[in-house]
Every structure is written in structure tokens, then in C-alpha cells.
Design a protein that fits this description.
This protein is 48% helix and 19% strand. It is α/β, with parallel strands linked by helices and 279 residues long. It has two domains: 2-209; 218-278. Strands 1, 2, 3, 4, 5, 6, 7, 8 and 9 form a nine-stranded mixed beta sheet that branches.
């Protein structure tokens, strides 16, 4: 199912999305993608009808790891600081925000992991472990009118539901909603348009969590680590025995296989240990 979160500016879309991500993460269904919180500063002496805070920029937070990428700066502030690039995609599209092409490339690289996984590549093993919900915050004029910006995210959405991402949520401004529906509706067999409401939160969480396995308990993780440690010990002893044999070069294939299994299980062990520490 494809959800499109839409509405006017400053109605709480990002705060709603942050709550959704936190809820799903706590229930073992961490989303993959990006959310875009603003960079805010208090206004000096705001008029009674003005907002008390001024939006200066936008960050991109890569999910699930939480890496923060400084993404956009208000165009007038970027010009004042000398950071404005007239040749950038955002400048050529005459956006009100200055977005560096380098920042776009970083976020596209994050989404490209999932594209490589879909194609059977090796670059998105982390994404393959997630499944559930793909989050794209947000698709704007660059993506929907100019085929620029977060092109890897657009490509993922155009794939429709997949084994790893049976559900997706894209944030789109209301005036761009027709373009988004036209572009992605067929692949997803329609879209569900939502706003930042309690009812929408329950709807998305229900769709994502339906049939999702319960997260492993600390006891389960501890037992898994014990079993992995035991297998690793046996594999290392086997490797030593193979290397100690006469003419070990004749056993190169068996030794290589043992090394690969040791590397894989060592990685699995580190992931279990990290999860136990996080708990």
C-alpha cells in the first residue's frame, strides 16, 4: 500500500512522521528511507499574526541508522553566506530552498542501497533486513516536475510493492498531489491520501505491523549469541586442523569456505551484540 502524506506547510507533517517512525521502531519494524525535519530559530519580535519560529533550513535523517545530512538552506541565507550554487539543480529549478547537489547525492546513495538489493546486488544487505515501510520525505518540484532530486527514491516508488517494502509513505505538498498519484498510482494499484491525524497514524501502523513477526526478546538474542559462539569455535578449530594438514594448499577450497562462514557468523554475532547493548 502506498500512503501519500499531504497538506499545507507547517501543519505538523514532519512531527507526525517522526512519531510514526518512533512507534514502528519500538515495535521492531524500523522503516527505511528519509525524514526531513526543519532547522528552526525564534523570530525576533514576531507580529501577532506571525509564526514565532523561522525556518532556516532542512535536514535529512537517514533511516534507520539516524545519520543526519544537512540538506537545504533558505535561498536568501545561502546567498548571504556565499554557499549558493547557481548551477545546482535547485537553483536551475528556481526553488526557494538551496539544496547542494552533494547532499542530494548522499541521500540518493542511501536509497540506491535498496535499489541494488532489488536487483540482487550486494550493496543493500542492511535494507534487506528491514522490510516493512519505505519512507520518502519529501517529493517536491525537483522530483515530480523536473525528474531531478531524489531520483533513487522515485525509482523505488515506481517499482510498486516489493518483498522488502510492501508499503511506502511519501510526503507530497498538496499542489503536487495530482502528479504523485499519476506517477505512482498504477504501480501501487492506487494510493491512500492521508493527513497528519491520529486516524492516519493508526491506519499506517496497522498496515505495516499486520503479520509482522514479534521482535526477538533479550533471552532469544542471548541464546542466539551462545549458539553462534559455539559454531564459530567449531569452525575455527576445523580451520586450524585443515591448515595443519600436510599439503594444506590442496585444501584451499575447504579453508576458503570455512573463512567465509567465520566472517559471516562474526558479523551476525556483532549485530546480535549491538542489539543486546541497545536494549
Amino acid at each position: 500500500m502506498l500512503f501519500i502524506l499531504t497538506g499545507d506547510v507547517q501543519i505538523g507533517k514532519t512531527r507526525w512522521l517522526q512519531r510514526l517512525v518512533a512507534d514502528l521502531d519500538a515495535r521492531g519494524a524500523a522503516p527505511f528511507g528519509v525524514i526531513a525535519p526543519g532547522q528552526w530559530a525564534p523570530r525576533r519580535n514576531p507580529a501577532p499574526d506571525e509564526e514565532p519560529f523561522d525556518k532556516l533550513g532542512i535536514d535529512n535523517v537517514l533511516l534507520p541508522e539516524g545519520t543526519v545530512v544537512p540538506f537545504a538552506r533558505r535561498a536568501d541565507l545561502a546567498r548571504e553566506s556565499g554557499a549558493y550554487d547557481e548551477d545546482s539543480q535547485a537553483a536551475q529549478a528556481e526553488l526557494a530552498w538551496h539544496i547542494s547537489d552533494e547532499a542530494i547525492a548522499v541521500v540518493n546513495g542511501h536509497f540506491a542501497k535498496a535499489l541494488e538489493e532489488k536487483a540482487g546486488g550486494e550493496g543493500a544487505k542492511a535494507a534487506a533486513l528491514l522490510g516493512g515501510l519505505l519512507v520518502v520525505d519529501e517529493l517536491g518540484r525537483l522530483e515530480l516536475l523536473h525528474d531531478q532530486g531524489l531520483t533513487a527514491a522515485v525509482a523505488l516508488l515506481e517499482c510498486g510493492p516489493t518483498r522488502h517494502f510492501p508499503h511506502a509513505l511519501a510526503v507530497v505538498r498538496d499542489y503536487l498531489l495530482p502528479q504523485a498519484v499519476q506517477r505512482f498510482g498504477i504501480a501501487w494499484n492506487g494510493v491512500t491520501v492521508i493527513g497528519p491525524t491520529e486516524q492516519a497514524l493508526a491506519l499506517v501502523e496497522s498496515a505495516v505491523l499486520e503479520g509482522a513477526p514479534a521482535p526477538a526478546s533479550a533471552h532469544d538474542l542471548t541464546e542466539a549469541k551462545r549458539q553462534i559462539d559455539s559454531i564459530l569455535h567449531k569452525l575455527r578449530e576445523t580451520k586450524k586442523a585443515l591448515e595443519a594438514k600436510e599439503h594444506p594448499e590442496r585444501l584451499k577450497a575447504q579453508i576458503t569456505l570455512a573463512n567465509r562462514r567465520i566472517e559471516a557468523l562474526t558479523l551476525a554475532n556483532s549485530l546480535v551484540e549491538a542489539e543486546l547493548i541497545r536494549r
